[in-house]
């Protein structure tokens, strides 16, 4: 891509990254809230389901990686705007985002298995 099309695509990419980061934090927050509600319903104690199992632990790791990828994207943008070298940061951002994508698929599968165990 060249010129205006590339700039528009980059703005959309940055906007999508912001939305995905916000959605990731929101989803993890909802997961904690649902575990608290489940704990109250099952045991009368909101903390009884707060210790994460495999699915919850991988979710927290994934959230950490997602925030790291988001920060790398922001760092790439600031380096580019200030005229600094940004190729390495951009490359790391891309590679780690690929890993996060694959891990998100595995996490979704673990979530499906977890849902089956609850039902």
Query: Can you tell me the number of structural domains?
Result: 1
Structural class: mainly alpha
Q: Which stretches of 5+ consecutive residues score pLDDT under 50?
A: none
What's the helix-strand series? HHH
Task: Describe this structure in a few short sentences.
This protein is mostly helical. It has helices at 3-43, 54-82, 87-118. It has one domain (3-118).
What features would you describe in this structure?
- The chain is mainly alpha-helical.
- The protein has one domain.
- The protein is 86% helix and 0% strand.
- The protein contains 3 helices and no strands.
- It has helices at 3-43, 54-82, 87-118.
- α1 (3-43) packs antiparallel against α2 (54-82).
- The radius of gyration is 18 Å and the shape is elongated.
């Amino acid at each position: 891509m060249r010129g205006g099309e590339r700039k528009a695509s980059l703005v959309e990419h940055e906007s999508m990254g912001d939305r995905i980061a916000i959605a990731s934090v929101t989803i993890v927050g909802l997961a904690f809230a649902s575990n608290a509600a489940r704990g109250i319903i099952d045991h009368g104690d909101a903390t009884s389901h707060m210790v994460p199992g495999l699915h919850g632990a991988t979710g927290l790791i994934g959230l950490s990686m997602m925030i790291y990828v988001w920060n790398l994207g922001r760092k790439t943008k600031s380096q580019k705007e200030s005229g600094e070298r940004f190729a390495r940061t951009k490359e790391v951002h891309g590679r780690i985002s690929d890993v996060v994508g694959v891990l998100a698929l595995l996490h979704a599968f673990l979530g499906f298995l977890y849902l089956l165990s609850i039902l």
